[in-house]
Amino acid sequence: MYQEKSIGRIISCIHRYTHIHMHKKMESYNIGSGQFFFLTRLYHHPGINQEMLAESLSVDKATCARAIKKLEEQGFVIRIRDETDKRAYQILLTDKAKKLKPQIKQILQEWTRNLLKGFTQEEQQQLFTYLERIEHNASIYK
Question: What is the model's pTM?
Answer without folding.
Answer: 0.80
